[in-house]
Amino acid sequence: MSMAPHSKLDGEAGARLLAKAQWRWYEVLFWLAAISLYFVFGDFIPGIPTKLMLLSEIVSLGLLALSIDLVLGYAGIVTLGQGAFFGLGAYVAGVMAKAGMGVFPLSDPLLGLLAAAAVCGIAGFLTSFLVLRGSDLTRLMVTLGVALILAELANQMRWLTGGADGLQGVTSSPILGQWDFDLWGRTAYLYSLAVLFVCFWLSRRIVHSTFGLSLKAIKGNALRARAIGVPVNARLIAIYALAAAIAGVAGALLAQTTQSASPDMIAFHRSADALLILVFGGAGYLYGGLIGAVLFRVMQDVIGAFTLQYWQFWLGLVLVLLVLFVRGGVIGLLEGWWNRMTRTGDAP
User: Does the pLDDT value for residue 48 go beyond 60?
Assistant: First the structure.
C-alpha cells in the first residue's frame, strides 16, 4: 500500500517525460525547410547559383555548436576546447581519406566518420578527468590548454598532418561506393544534413531521457544531485566524451566535404566562434546551435557586404545587445514571444 503513491508519481513523471519527448510541428517544419534548401540553392532554379557548399559548412558549424550545447547548455560545463575535437576529427578523416587514395572502403566517408567519433570520444574521455577538477574558471583554462596542445601537435607533426600547410590530396571515395562528391556540393549537403539529423536525433533522445534529467539536476546544483544519489562524475564524463565524439564528426564532415584538413580547423577561434554561435542561438535548446549557425553566417555575409573592414565590430555589437536584453538567445526571444501570445489568446 505504501508503494502506490510512489508508483502513481513515477507513472505521471514518466508520462510527462514521454510527452515532452514527442516531436513538435515546428521541429518537423525546421527539417523540411533544411531539405528544401537543397532545391532552392542547388542550381535547380534558373538564375540562383548553387550555395550548397556554404550550407554544408554551416551544417558542420551547427553540429559543433550542438556538441557544445550538450556540455554547456545541459551539463553546465564551461569549455573553450571543443574546437580541438573538431580539428582532431577533421585530421582523422583526412588522414584516412588520404591513405585510402579515394579507394573504397578505407577512404569511405562513413568509415571516416566512425573513426573520427571513436578517436575523439576516447580523447574526450581521457581529458574529462582533468575537466572535472576545480571550478568553472579552472575548467575553462583546462579545456583551452588541451586545445592549444592539440593545435601545436598538429603543427609539429608534419609527417602526418602536413604542418602549417595542412593535408594535401584528401579525396574521399563515393559514399557507400555509390554517390560521388560533386563540384556543386549537392551530395555533400545531403550527406552533411543526414549526419546532422542522426546526431541531433541521438542528442534529443539523450536530453529527454532520465539521463538528460540528471544532467539538468547536476547543472542546477551538483551537491544536491549527488545527495539524492546521482553519480555526478560518471554523468559528466559520459556527456563530455559523447560531445567530443559529436564534435569530431562535425570536423570530419568539414574535412570530407571540403577535401582538406588544416590547422585552422583546430585553432582557438573555432571554439570561440562555435560558443558565440550557441550564445546567439540559445543554449539549452538543442536547436540553438543550428539556428545560431545559420544566422551567424548570414550576418557575416550581410555585414561583410556593407563594411568588410569592420564586420566583426557590428557582429560583436549585435551579440552584446542580444546577451544584455534577450535571455536565451534567438530561441529564447521566440519562446518568450510565443508564451506571451498564448497567454493572451492571440496565438494562431
Answer: no
